[in-house]
Amino acid sequence: MVKPASRNTGVKRPRRQPLRRIRNNRRQDYSAWRFCITLHAGECFSGRFRSAAMPAEAPLLDSDLEIREALPDDAHAIAALYVWHVLNGRASFEEIPPTVDEMRKRIQTVRDNGLPWLVALWRGAIVGYCYATFYRPRPAYRYTLEESIYVESGMGGRGIGSALLSRLIAECEKGPWRQMLAIIGDGHNNAGSLAIHKKFGFTVAGQLRSVGYKMGDWRDTLIMQRALGDGDWTLPE
Predict the structure, then answer these.
(1) Which of 157, 74, 153 is nearest to 121 (CA)?
(2) Does the reported pTM lie above 0.90?
(3) Are 107 and 78 in contact (CB under 8 A)?
(4) Among the four 6, 33, 92, 143, which has the fewest Cβ within 10 Å?
(5) CB-based contacts of 216: which residues, under 8 Å, 6+ apart?
(6) CA distance 67 to 70
C-alpha cells in the first residue's frame, strides 16, 4: 500500500498533545478564574481576590507579618482564602467550600476545645491561617493533635507557613499534648508543605495510597509526625 504524499503548505501544524496533558492545561486555565461563591447572606468572595493586591514580586518581611489568635469576625476572610484551596488545590479533600457561618463554627469548636486557631496578617490582611484539632475522638488519642495550614494563593514561599507553624507548635507545647500529625493531601506532589514540615522536625510516618479522588485522579495522603514537648519520653500527668 502506498501512502499519499503529504501536502507541504509551508505552515507547520501544531502537534497533538496527549489527552492527559490537555486535561491538565484545561485544569490550569480553569484555576485561573476568579471563583466567586455566595458565602453568607448574599455576600460574595473570590478565592483569589487578595492576589491582585499583593504582586508576586513584593517582598514579605518578618516585620510586616503578624500572627495572632483568630477572632469570630475573621471567618469571612478565612472562608474566602480557603475557597481557592477547595476548588483548585489538592491538599484539601473538601470539594464544596464552607460558608462563612460554617467556618465560624469550626473556629469556635477549635477554641472551645482549648486548641489554637491562628491567622497571619500582612499589612492588615489575612494571608494565611492554621489550627490544631484532636486527631481522633476516642480517649486514648487525647494527647495527639492534627494540624492544618493554608496560605493565600500566590503568597507561598514568603515565610507565612513557617511563621504559622512555628507559633502553632509553641502554643500546643504549652498544653498536655505530646504528638502532632500533619495529614497532607497529595503529599508527594506538595513540595512546599513537605519542606516546611521537615524544617520543623516532622518526619514521614506513613502513606495512605489512593484514599482520595479529586480533580479526576486518585490522591494519596502523606502522614508526617513530630513530638510535642517531652513526646513519649515521659508519661502524661
Answers:
(1) 74
(2) no
(3) yes
(4) 6
(5) 23
(6) 9
Please give the CATH number for the structural domain made up of 63-227: 3.40.630.30
Sorted by sequence, the CB contacts under 8 Å of residue 201 that are 6+ apart come out as 226, 227
Average pLDDT over residues 175-189: 94
- 45-59 mean pLDDT: 40
State phi, psi for 82 to the nearest 5 degrees.
-75, -20
Extents of the domains making up the chain = 63-227
pLDDT value for 21: 42
Render pLDDT for 95-119 as a digit per residue (tens, 0 to 9): 999 999 999 999 999 999 999 999 9
Q: What is the overall mean pLDDT for the chain?
A: 82
> Please, are residues 145 and 177 in contact by the beta-carbon 8 Å criterion?
yes
For the chain, what percent of residues have pLDDT higher than 70?
Answer: 74
Cell of 30: 480553569
Q: What is the C-alpha separation between 27 and 214, in angstroms, rounded?
A: 12
Q: Which cell numbers hold the place of 91?
A: 491538599
